[in-house]
Amino acid sequence: MIEEYILKSKEMKNISEGGSCAYDFGDYVLVQYACQTKYGIARDKEESVMEEVNKLSGINTPLHVEVKRIDEGNINYCYVLQEKAKGISFAKYCNNKPEMQIWKQVKRYLKR
Question: Distance between CA 3 and CA 44 in Å, rounded?
């Protein structure tokens, strides 16, 4: 199943608002994590993450449906097919880069 999504993604627009590439398939999103082999394995703990995320209930965390790894010599990829998260991206609610906005909010919270 995931192989079909990977092939189709090669001709699709990246919808990610930062970070790893992501491709929209309606109810699902294919996320492509990449890493230069000399630095290790892309998303090296994804299989464990997938197992733990899928155990959660009552938390709005997208189900991870399938994982596929592809090694192309200098670069290795970890593709994760997951349910599309519900709601609107946090990036739509802030003027800063989302990472900066989250850090500002964390710092404010820690000062309490």
Answer: 19
The kind and range of the H/E element at 110 are: helix 98-110
- The pLDDT value given to residue 65: 94
> How much is the mean pLDDT over the chain?
88
- Collapsed DSSP state (helix, strand, coil) of residue 46: helix
Place of tokens 């739509």: 92
Q: What is the pLDDT of residue 45?
A: 93
Q: If DSSP codes are grouped into helix, strand and coil, which group holds residue 74?
A: coil
Residues 102 and 93 sit within 8 Å (Cβ to Cβ) = no
Query: Residue 86: helix, strand or coil by DSSP?
Result: coil
pLDDT one-digit tens code per residue, 8-31: 999 999 998 778 999 999 999 999
Is the predicted pLDDT of residue 60 greater than 80, yes or no? no
Give the number of other CB atoms < 10 A from CB of residue 9.
19
Q: Which helix (H) or strand (E) holds 50?
A: helix 46-55
- E strand residue ranges, 1-112: 21-25, 28-36, 64-71, 75-83
